[in-house]
Write a structure and sequence with these properties.
The protein is of the alpha/beta class. It is built from 13 helices and 7 strands. The longest helix is centred in the last third of the chain and has 19 residues. The radius of gyration is 25 Å and the shape is elongated. 25% of the residues are buried.
């Protein structure tokens, strides 16, 4: 794995080319560690290539079935739905010995993992921070497992990207609502740190700020509890609503909390034209929050059916409804 390899133009395969994101000269260790996503679900073109490098007939039949039209459902069930990796696939067909060139051709790029900063350059100009959830299911997360094992003073390679979409309002007279669950609280801490610095610097702050944060337990994952409570005391944060999904009493999820305060929510979003930010899981939380907002503004304002959906769409067009979400 430590030998030097180079791409060459003398290959006999028609239309063969090295993916543009692979270095021309590298070691196999560097390629498989930093450039190739060996945990990605194998796609059918890779499976077809594996057939000719499988020697035992039973193994060959298995992989041939998975990439055939007849085996479409089996592929979906065994490979795609179960998020099977290349290593798990090769363990299932042990007589398959693909050459490195096949893997270089078919394995996808190991993409950088984007994280939103939880810090503000106004508050900590020489320090950046971000919040992440350690992923353990269905398998340990690649980036979060690595980050959770970092030691002090370890060098970390980052690829900074400037985002102009998900930022707090520059106008301190503009009110806004922030909704986040779990590590979705991260960017909002950056929002609040910036707001606090500007307030301490004497800037006039007439707009209100409301944070709705969802976590599991008061004692285990109520992140930044003391800091948030202090910001309420300082007047940086106008309203703080926290939900605990694993505890008795009170709203369980952020959308439940917003619905509980529906009159105030509608006043902020419709009457005061406040901005609305959502950060967290796209499938569950973000979708549930949007549907709740659509329902609440429609019912509380006495609008006709479908007007709530139109209003949220209008908010998006006006860039007052913003999301930083992931799947």
């Amino acid at each position: 794995m430590s030998g030097i390899m180079s791409a060459t133009s003398t290959t006999q395969k028609a239309k063969a080319k090295l993916p543009v994101w692979l270095p021309i000269t590298s070691t196999l260790e560097m390629l498989f560690k930093h450039h190739l996503d060996i945990r990605a679900v194998p796609k059918k073109p890779l499976l077809r290539s594996l057939v000719e490098h499988t020697t035992v007939e039973e193994d060959k039949r298995k992989v041939a079935m998975l990439c055939s039209k007849e085996g479409g459902q089996e592929y979906m069930t065994k490979v795609r739905d179960s998020q099977m990796t290349l290593l798990e696939l090769l363990a299932m067909i042990p007589s398959c010995m693909p050459p490195v060139t096949v893997l270089l051709e078919h394995l996808p790029r190991l993409n950088p993992r984007p994280y939103s900063l939880s810090s503000s350059p106004l508050a900590t100009p020489n320090t950046i921070s971000w919040v992440f959830t350690l992923v353990t299911e269905p398998r340990p997360g690649l980036a979060t497992t690595w980050m959770s094992n970092l030691q002090a003073m370890t060098e970390v390679m980052v690829q900074p990207r400037t985002g102009h979409h998900f930022r707090p309002p520059q106008d301190l007279s503009q009110s806004y609502v922030m909704v986040g669950a779990g590590s979705g609280l991260g960017p909002f801490m950056g929002f609040l740190e910036e707001r606090r610095v500007r307030k301490r610097n004497g800037e006039e702050m007439t707009g209100d700020c409301w944070l709705v944060f969802g976590c599991r337990s008061k004692d285990k994952d109520y992140l930044f509890k003391e800091v948030l409570e202090q910001m309420v005391e300082e007047g940086v944060l106008t309203k703080l609503s926290v939900t605990f999904s694993r505890e008795e009493g009170g709203p369980k999820y952020v959308q439940d909390s917003l619905k509980e305060d529906k009159q105030q929510l509608v006043m902020w979003l419709v009457d005061q034209l406040a901005s609305f930010y959502v950060c967290g899981d796209a499938r569950g939380m973000a979708r549930g929050v949007q549907e709740m907002v659509e329902e609440v503004v429609e019912k509380e304002k006495g609008w006709e059916e479908g007007e709530g959906v139109k209003y949220v769409k209008k908010m998006r067009e006006e860039k007052r409804y913003k999301e930083d979400i992931w799947t």
